[in-house]
Amino acid sequence: MFHDYTRRAALRIGGLGMLGLTLPKLLRASESSSGENAISARATRAKSVIFLYQFGGPSHLDSFDSKPNAPSGVRSQFGVIDTAAPGIRICDQLPKMAKVMNDVTLVRTVHHTMKNHNSAAYYALTGHAPPLDDIRLRDSQELFPAYGSVVDRLAPTTNGMPTFVAYPHVLRDGEITPGQHASFLGKAHDPLLVTSDPNERGFSLPELSLPSGLTAERLQNRREMQQLVNRQTKLLDYSAAAKGLEAYYEKSLSMLNSSKVRDAFNLSAEPQAIRDRYGRTTYGQSCLLARRLVEAGVKFVNVYYSDSIGGRFPKDGWDTHGFDNTRMYPILKDYHLPLVEQTLPTLINDLKERGLFDSTLIVWMGEFGRTPKINDNISRDHWPQCYTALLAGGGAKRGFVYGTSDKQAAYPDKDPVLLDDLTATVFALMGLDPETEVRDKLNHPLPISAGKIVTGVMA
Length: 459
Prior knowledge:
single chain, 459 residues, alpha/beta, Alkaline Phosphatase, subunit A, 2 domains, nine-stranded mixed sheet, 11 helices
């Protein structure tokens, strides 16, 4: 969890921790906000978003923006192949991905100036630039909330499902990476965070599971006793925190009784052939779970590729220049690109087969790309000046490239896109006006995005 309960809070919620109820406090009822949070009249194209966050920073030159005519020392060691989208060529390690490129938009000119993972990742996860570019950037209530928390604040689900779900890791590069929760919007809008492995046998949702022999009725009686004790000891005051905990408790009980929530997380209900298509890996089964969640009505799903930037083990995040200093291309060839190849086309095809593709926006991106110049260790370093994000479904164009990078994929040559602009576009596709204001801890009005909508990527 991002925030520890205070001792007082622990007393108020009694035995929740012992019961295994570790839901984040996304459950405090939203305060009325009049017209400031109104959804724009713009037609909603994406009912849900699956944000496949590639922690560590994938190399755009070795995936979706190959430059085969670049000089030696810049061009990839991989070749390029044609795709189902005329004129779009990608890395030759992605032949299955090539077959679905007619369903995809590549934004090849995303750029910013943050070179450290935590600051760049915070920018990618929120769409707001951090106050400084520093690996020591710490999580705080002053920083902006995650995309999904904004959606939960402005357009929460009304179907009994959580609005925002994140899994299966908590991201960190030394410090916990900011931008993974609701920040100043309040814990009521934190994601439902799941840190168990969807690929494990018997995967379930322990956060919503009752211990053996304890029924919901008994839990309700226990709650009534706690309320009596709270009243007698005057712990149940009218502070915002107390009201938040009360709403949290009520929603917890509601979710415990919800077969719909439990069923959505029940991967064992999937045919074995479908599970095999996604791949028997943590990330593969996480992508399958994302499809199940949007199918059940969850609006925003963050799937984290890895809990680490990489550099320690081959099967880790995309920051490959740190592993043994010579292993970038073997790691890409043996692990990273095959994992993309198995999961991303499978998710796209699965959503299409189920009639969910047009209403579900997939966003695939990291915090930055990699340097055009290959370093002396035959690897690439951090490069935020130009890289690629992939959009699919949910109102994005199909078989389309937006923006052109220069001859070495070093800088945007045409139609640059700031992360702020990408954020504004995602919100717009969900029917949220990017100029909608929320308020920080000091009650200052702040727009949910400072960017401009990239209408050129919208179908």
